[in-house]
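We close this part of the discussion by returning to an individual protein. The amino acid sequence and the C-alpha cells for this protein are reproduced below:
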Amino acid sequence: MPARTPYAGTERKLVLAFDVGTTYSGISYTILDPGREPKINPVTRFPGRANAGGDAKVPTVIYYAEDGTPRAIGAETEGEGIEALADDSGWVKAEWFKLHLRPRTQTTSSVGEDIPPLPAGKSAVDVLADFLVYMKQCARTYIEETHPVDGANFWRSGKEEYILSHPNAWEGAQQTLIRRAAVQAGLISDTPADHARIAFITEGEASLNFCIDRGLMNDSIRHGHGVTIVDAGGGTIDISTYAKRPSGTDEFEEIAAAQSYFKGSVFVTRAAARYLDEYLLGTRFHGDVPFMTEKFDKATKLSFRDPNDPQFIKFGNVSDRDPSRNIRAGRLKLEGSIIANFFESSIQHTVDAVLSQVSLATRPVTSVFLVGGFAASDYFFSELEKRLRPRGLDICRPDPHLNKAVPDGSIAGYLRPSVQTRVSRFTYGVRCARSCNIFDNEHIRRMSQSVRTLGGNRVIPGAFSDILLKNTQVTEIQEFRKSYREQASSREGLNRQNQTPITCYRGNIACPQFYDQDPGNFHNVFSVHADLSNLADNSEEHTGPDGAYYEVEYDIIILFGLTEFKAQYAWTEEGVERRSPAEVIFDTEIEYRD
C-alpha cells in the first residue's frame, strides 16, 4: 500500500464517507492529525448486530411505524423474527429507496416497475434523511468508543466533513436532493458555508481511488494502458475507464465518459421473484413467494456457481411437498440454467458496457477491475471473465473486501486526489437565436421562422448554442464560456435577475444547431442565476430601424470538471473583465418525481 502524505493542516479534522447503497451501506472515516500520516478506518460496530466488530456493511432498510416513525434501521433489521414483529406491529418496510432518486430518462423509465414503493407520506429525501441520521449516530458511537480519549471532541465543533458517494450517472439534481436530505438529517445546516462540508464523489471514481490506495495497479496500467473499473452494486453497475497520466505520478485521467446502468444485483432478485410468482401461481405455495425470494437474495444468489448444478431454496418444513413443482421437504429445487437466466441481463449489459467503454477510450485498455457487493458472486465474475478475456481484457477482483471499495475509496480520494481530468457525458448549452446564414441548409429550412432584432438583423429562434461538447476531456479548473447578447427597448427591460436555463443534449447528433432536430433529447437540467443589475444600468444605447434600444453582452462561464458544476457571468467594463458570482440551481421537482 503506497504511503500517504502526512496531514499538513494545523487543526485536527474528522472526515467521514457515507456510502448509502441500494441494498447495503457502509461508513469509513479518517482523523487528520497535523504532521501524521492519515489512516482509513471502517465503522464495524452497529447497534443491534450480534457479531460486533464484524461486517462493515449494514442493510439499507428502514421499518416505519404507521405514524411514520422509524422503528428499526440498518443492522437492527437483521434481527431474528424482525419480519414477524413488523407484520404484527403494522410496520412498513422501506428498501431500495435510493433508486427513487434516479434521473428520469428514456433508458430508466421502466426501472420504477421493479422498485418497491415508498411508505405513504414519505418522499425519497425523507427516507434518505432518516437513514443518514442513523449512519451519523452509528459513526459517532463507534468513534467515541474506539477513541475514548478524544473521540467525543470531534463532534463538539460541528465541523466534521462528509463525503457522499452516488452512481456515475447521477448529476446535480440528485446531488441537490442528497444535500437536502443531509440538511434534514442534521449533518449540516442549510447555509452556503455548511454546504461546503458536503463533498460528492461518483462510485466509479471512489472505486479507482480504492484500487490505487491498495497498490493494486498492474504493470500495464503503470505503463499507461487504461483500466476499466466495474463497480457492481445492488442497484447500479457503474463503469468508468481511466489511464495513468504521463507525469510519472499516481495521477489519472478519465479516458471515456463514465456510465451507470440499472442492472445491479437487485434486478437478479426481481427476475427470480417474477419467475417464482408465475411458476407457483395457483399452488398453495404461491403465498410463500416473498419468503422464497428473500432466501434466494440472501443465500442462493451469491452461492450460485454452475448452471449445470441445481439449486435449492429452503422455505418450509418436511411436510411441505409438491413433486409437480419440484418441492420436497420444504425445499424448492430450481435448475441451474433457470438461475443463470436470472443473471443474464445483468451480465450481458455489463459486458456490452465494458466493450463500449473500451471502444470509446482514448488509450488502449487491457485491464478490468470488478468491485462492489455484486462482485462477490462467483458466477457473475466467471461469466464476465469468460466473455471479456477473449476480447483481450484481463478481469480481476482486486481485493477480498469488495464491498468496502466505495467508502474507503471516497476517503482515499479526499486524502490524495487521483483523477485530474474527466470526460463529459453529454453536450451542454443554452437556447438562443442564431443569425441567419443563407449558405447553411439548416438555416435555409427555417428561414420562414426568422425574426428581426431591435438592431435590424434577422435571426432564427429555437437555436442551440453549445458550451461543452460530449466526450470532451476537462480539468477541474478549466472554464468553458460562450458570449451572448441581449437587447431591450429600455434599460428596465433588460434581464437584471438573470436566470439562464442550461440544456443538456443526450442524443447522438455531434453538434446540434436547433432544438427541433432532436427535441426528445434536449432537457433543461439546471439554471444559472446572477444579479446583473449593474450591467443593465450601464448598458449602451444603440439606434435601430425602430429607434433607440439597449444592449448588453456577457459570457456564461461554467466549470464542468468538478463533481459539482460551478458557474459565473463575465463582461467587459472599461476594458476590464468583471465577473458576477452565479448560483447553479437544479430542477428536482419535475423530472425526478415518482
In short: The chain has three domains: 13-202, 217-398, 427-586. The longest helix spans residues 336-360.
